[in-house]
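Go through this chain for my students:
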Amino acid sequence: MTRHELKEQLEHDQFTDTVSGVVAYAASHRQQLIRWVIMGIAIAVLIGGVFWYLSYENSLRDRDLESALGVADRPVGQAAPGVTTFPTEDTKNQALMKAFADVIAKDGGSKQGLTAQYYLGTLKAKKGDVKGAEADLSKVADSSGPVAPLAKIALAQVYAGDNKMSQATSLLQSIVNKPANLVSKAQAQILLARLEENANPQQAQKLLRTVQTESKDPIIDRVAQQISSQMSK
């Protein structure tokens, strides 16, 4: 390739042509480019504002849940100076249930709302409101929220208490199949073994042996061994 060819290639280099074209375009469309830049800045500010708003809304929901949980910290008994108390445990439970219901009404569907609904479901189960507990816990268990596995465990206990063993087993098995951060596969297997203890003791022991073989957590392994020994007596 001759010097002339090199020079000609350089003069018609695609990158050079592109840069020249951009410069020429910028010169002839200066006002339009300025508008685009301003629009881009506005969009960036808008996106930043959306993220700030979402973060702010999340902090408000956190505050709502913390306020509800604060009701649980109030003692029961005779009032003391500067301390808010409840006259009875039942009064406290009623106030706590209302606090969680208020969070659900305001923040339902959010992480905080689902957490409040989980707590409300467990309180209803404790009071013997089986239908109410099932309704609240089912909604949380069917969600993709972080407390869904805990809701499944609580709901399984409600089902077991209502003699709905197949539904209880199915819930725990779903955690075994798809464990989560809050509930590991081994923990779900131990719970499932406990559920199967009377109806299917051989299957229960098999689950516990699996835990002891596969688990790398010494605490989980020890728990499985203890439960297995208790079942063998």
Residues 1-29, 50-54 have pLDDT under 50 and may be disordered.
